[in-house]
Amino acid sequence: MLDDLPTSGLWASWIDDGPVLRRRAMRLTRGDREEAEDLLSSTLIKAISHVERSDTQVREPRAFLLFALKNEYISRLRKRNSERQVRDFSTDIYEDNAADLADSRPSQEHLLWQQEALGRVMRLIDRLPAEHRRIFEMRFCDEASYRDIAVALGISEPLARKRVQNLRQMLRQGLETGEEPALVPPASRRKA
């Protein structure tokens, strides 16, 4: 009666081919007997449950078990590698890491520099002509597309891109030199 079960061939092979499977497990685990036994046990459980669940007819039980053993070993390696990426096993989890967190905060000098740079940007924006301030607000505050800027200003999309590019250059120049940027286009490009 037991011979009629789909897993009966696996059980027979498990007993008959035990030494072969054990040698393969020892080789895969590089001689770690405990890990090899654990690998064999989980392989048997997964192979039997797979055959029972899917009602699979196994023609070569020995080859099937060797294949399942290799797959189980690969699955364990992948799981272990992904855990290593998430965890740092050399770190003591009870160690107080508050000092490291405190060090990652920016220094007072850096905060002061950021505040000064932001103040300079705001002063530069205040000095821009109304049309440039409007372009700045649409592009960098409202995140409007070049098409939307072009429609709002009644200009072409390439011209809207060019004006945003000029605005960026003026602001960059003003920040680098500390001087008021040239707010009018060069004379050669002005329309008569």
Automatic annotation (TrEMBL):
Entry keyword tRNA-binding: no
InterPro entries named in the record: RNA_pol_sigma-70-like (IPR039425), RNA_pol_sigma-70_dom (IPR014284), RNA_pol_sigma70_r2 (IPR007627), RNA_pol_sigma70_r4_t2 (IPR013249), RNA_pol_sigma_r2 (IPR013325), RNA_pol_sigma_r3/r4-like (IPR013324), WH-like_DNA-bd_sf (IPR036388)
GO biological process: DNA-templated transcription initiation
TM spans (from-to): none
Keywords: DNA-binding, Sigma factor, Transcription, Transcription regulation
Pfam family for this entry, one: Sigma70_r2
GO function terms (MF aspect): DNA binding; sigma factor activity
Family: Belongs to the sigma-70 factor family. ECF subfamily.
Protein name (database record): Sigma-70 family RNA polymerase sigma factor
Organism of derivation: Pannonibacter tanglangensis
Lineage: Bacteria, Pseudomonadati, Pseudomonadota, Alphaproteobacteria, Hyphomicrobiales
